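Researcher: Go.
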Amino acid sequence: GHAVAARQEMVAGLTSREMDVLRAIARGQSMKETARALGISPKTVDNHTQNVYAKIGVKTRGGATLFAIEHGLCR
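Model: Structure:
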């Protein structure tokens, strides 16, 4: 049989990329730093950030960071 990779549990309907961006926000990375680390444009990071905020019901980086901490997403 084929081994099936365990999927990371998604929180609040976030995609895996949105989770990456949320973790970067929680670590205090800027949009440019996040874009460089993920190999995407800063505009794409901004789009993901806005999607994250909408899905988790926050309006600030601080709110997103608190959400990430409360849900054990910081590593």
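Model: The chain is about 60% helix and 0% strand.
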